[in-house]
Amino acid sequence: GDQREDHDSGRPVDPAYLSKLGVLYRRCPSIGAVDAIAAQRSYKNRDEIIVSPKTMGLAYDEKVKMFFNEHLHEDEEIRYVLDGEGFFDVRGVQDEWVRIHLEKGDLIVLPAGIYHRFTTDNHNVSAAAICGSHMSLLTSGSKKYIKAMRLFKDEPKWTPLNRAPELEKNPARKEYISREGEAHSA
């Protein structure tokens, strides 16, 4: 099926379960709330990314497929959704996928070493693209859209390490497994 579909299991994702996985989810209605979390976690740099066919052109499908490859990072990944919607899928306790729907005002922090993937959804529209009589024309081209702020401790970098057996020896992965194993046994 299409990776951008809801794939609703019928089970709501409890923020307490996400917390057990080391995932921080917050509803942040203002940038001030994001700034407070960024200061608390020593994030000094930020940028914005827009993922949409309109902004990425022919590279859109390839980029979304790349984001959807299961991977991890050696640093935390923090995203604040400024507009649009999308999904982060993370691996749960039993290595199952847990789908997290994010929309404008949502903030997520994924711990270093957690396997995850990202995709836009298939039915959202950029509010900025709705302009009076041009609405139907602009709406038809603005699906599959998300605008997010990315926050970084140092210089911006995004280096995905695609899942492979040898990655289990990666220091970030080993630390995540150790930390989460302790949390689940407590």
- Contiguous runs where pLDDT drops below 50 for at least 5 residues: 124-142
Total strand count, please? 9
Largest sheet: 7 strands, antiparallel
Assembly state (oligomeric):
single chain
Strand content: 25-35%
- What is the chain-wise order of helices and strands? HEHEHHEEEEEHEEH
Structural class: alpha+beta
Round the mean pLDDT to the nearest integer and report it.
82
C-alpha Rg (nearest Å): 17 Å
From the N-terminal CA to the C-terminal CA, the straight-line distance is 38 Å
Overview in brief:
The protein has helices at residues 15-20, 31-40, 53-56, 60-68, 135-140, 171-185, and strands spanning 24-27, 45-51, 71-72, 77-91, 97-103, 106-110, 116-120, 146-152, 161-162. It is α+β, with helices and mostly antiparallel strands. Strands 1, 2, 4, 5, 6, 7 and 8 form a seven-stranded antiparallel sheet that branches.
Write the layout of secondary structure elements.
Elements: H1 15-20, E1 24-27, H2 31-40, E2 45-51, H3 53-56, H4 60-68, E3 71-72, E4 77-91, E5 97-103, E6 106-110, E7 116-120, H5 135-140, E8 146-152, E9 161-162, H6 171-185
Describe the structure.
The chain is α+β, with helices and mostly antiparallel strands and 186 residues long. The chain is 27% helix and 29% strand. The protein has six helices and nine strands; from the N terminus they run H-E-H-E-H-H-E-E-E-E-E-H-E-E-H. The chain has helices spanning 15-20, 31-40, 53-56, 60-68, 135-140, 171-185, and strands at 24-27, 45-51, 71-72, 77-91, 97-103, 106-110, 116-120, 146-152, 161-162. The strands form two sheets. Strands 1, 2, 4, 5, 6, 7 and 8 form a seven-stranded antiparallel β-sheet that branches. The model is unreliable at 124-142 (pLDDT under 50).
